[in-house]
Amino acid sequence: MFLRRKTPKINDGFRSIACLEKLFIGGTEQWLLMRGKSDLLPVLLFLHGGPGSAQIGFAPYFQRELERHFVVVNWDQRGAGLSYRSDLNPETMNIEQFIADACEVTNYLQNRFRQNKIFIVGHSWGSIMGVLLAERFPEYYHAYIGIGQVVNMAKGERLSLQYVMRKSQEAGHKKALRELAALEENSYLDYRKLAIQRKWLSAFKGVMYRQSMMNVIVPKMLRSSEYHVLDILRFIRGARFSIRHMWTEVCDINLEGITKLQIPVFLCMGKHDYNTPFELAELFFNKLEAPIKTWEWFGNSAHCPNFEEPEKFNRHLIHLLYKVMERLSPSFTEEQQSKS
Fold first, then answer.
1. Are 132 and 99 within 8 A, CB to CB?
2. What is the total count of domains within the chain?
3. Does the residue 12 lie in any domain?
4. pLDDT digits (tens, 9 = 90+) for 56-106
5. Residue 273 catalytic?
6. Is 87 one of the catalytic residues?
7. Predicted confidence band of residue 327 (pLDDT cuts 50, 70, 90)
8. Which of 124, 127, 168, 301 is flagged as catalytic?
9. Residue 267 belongs to domain with CATH number
10. 231 lies in which domain range?
């Protein structure tokens, strides 16, 4: 029992689904958590951040309301969380492989739930994948929802460093100023030096605004039935492995050249986000052409509104679902009520 993984049943739904499943994706074992009040509901696939910040072990605590309206799918990506393997070939840790994995996951969900299209939500690093998937494979997706949207990594990291320098000076924080003074504009390219900047970014509430990420993740993970105690160690190792082998390539990402997407785009940004600075996401959003696009501010959040303001975030996502689906089918509201 101590090392057993399971996900709680959903007892109040018609054809409910609560399934923790291991699949062979892209040549390696990867894990999906699928939960919903009915397997007839629209599918919502979350692309977690990082690289390596797997969320099967804690995200379900924040998604219970979503499970009433979607089949919510959390995917621990290649090399992360439950999908980490010590013998995983580092050469497979590249963006194109992750895009291929995401397509394979998407196709699996389309076939399993008999849906031509699904919804995707990309958070931070996952927002890079989300935009690329939306651009290349619009036929697979109803809409793209971006949280903490990445646009231009180099510009974003420079703005982030400027933010912590400014906050350190305003606070007269000598230790922060001393440690940050040792960093150069391109120090973010070295993930070990990046850790120094991120430490102070967290201290000055540019990552999580109201509480630390540790206070959000760790208590939930310790109580998780989807992760056992050894999986927490797996989570840590996977996060380190993913950053070590992907960070250089991720730092070259620039999505500014993408100015048109063929599916609806909805961005959710924290007012205090300087992990992926909101200014760049605003510029990207303003230039973007899409069938529908909306911007939603989360005033009490930084980089993780889905975890800092989950009630508002969930309400907003449900509203977007109805907005998109009613556009496709005027009778969707009645159909949805009969399923949920």
1. yes
2. 1
3. no
4. 999 999 999 999 999 999 999 999 999 999 999 999 999 999 999 999 999
5. yes
6. no
7. confident
8. 124
9. 3.40.50.1820
10. 17-339
